[in-house]
Every structure is written in C-alpha cells, then in structure tokens.
Amino acid sequence: MTASKSMPLPAAPTNSGTDSRIIDKSDLIDRLATEMRVKSGGELPLSFCIAQVKRQLAGKQSESSAANNKPAATARPAVGSVFHSWAMRD
Of 50, 43, 2, whose CA–CA distance to 26 is shortest? Predict the structure, then answer.
C-alpha cells in the first residue's frame, strides 16, 4: 500500500436552504448607517445616514464633502522679500 501525498479535501459545506452569513438589504443599510452615525459622534440624524449609505451603495457621490474642497493655493516666493533685500547686495 502506497501513501498518498495529496492533501485531503475538506468536507463540503452543507447548505440547508439558508446561509447564516446572508443578511437582509434593509438590515445591512441600517447597520452601515448606524456605524456612520457613531463615527460622526451622533451629530447626524439616522435618516441622513441611511440616505448617505443608499447613495454610496448605488455608487453615487455623497453629499458630505469637505467644507472647503478647493485645492490649497500654492505659495509663491515673494520677489521683493525683506530677506532678499537684507541678505543680497545689489
């Protein structure tokens, strides 16, 4: 009798009609909205969080963007700065 070098296959999971990992769509939305509300410190109403979660799941852009979403202006070096007038001779 020769020994087999292959790994034994795990037993196939039995599916009894319902999977314990599948949750209802509304339950998922409620859970995600509750998590979002907790992250915000409880300041946002639950209805707003539910609407945000629905938008995110639909792939739409959410309304909660930064208050100042403009890019920062790049700092330009001052041409006539005090340092240049003091440190560099004419």
Answer: 50
